[in-house]
Design a protein that fits this description.
Blueprint lengths: L1 H5 L5 E6 L6 E6 L2 H11 L3 E3 L2 E2 L2 E3 L9 E5 L9
Protein name: RRM domain-containing protein
Organism: Rubroshorea leprosula
GO molecular function, one term: RNA binding
């Protein structure tokens, strides 16, 4: 599901779900500008009526500033 959402924006490369932390994913784009466009467009997107998706740039463990870190309710893990 996340791949379908983020792939509609130019520069999309991949989505990586973090199995050890349900509800967390990293989305990678070609550059920071492209990731910013996707982040603005999808900020607060509701995965389910009661679960808006907060999006922010990754804060650590990333060598690239264009990774987005999504904090998604654990429910979405089953929606992959």
């Amino acid at each position: 599901m996340l791949q379908l959402l983020f792939a509609q924006y130019p520069g999309f490369k991949e989505v990586r779900m973090i199995e050890a932390k349900p509800g967390i994913a990293f989305v990678e784009y070609e550059d920071e500008e492209q990731s910013g466009v996707a982040m603005q467009a999808l900020q607060g997107f509701k995965i389910a009526p009661q679960f808006p998706m907060p999006i922010s740039f990754a804060k650590k463990y990333s060598s690239s500033p264009c990774n987005l870190c999504n904090s998604i309710p654990p429910l979405t893990k089953d929606l992959q």
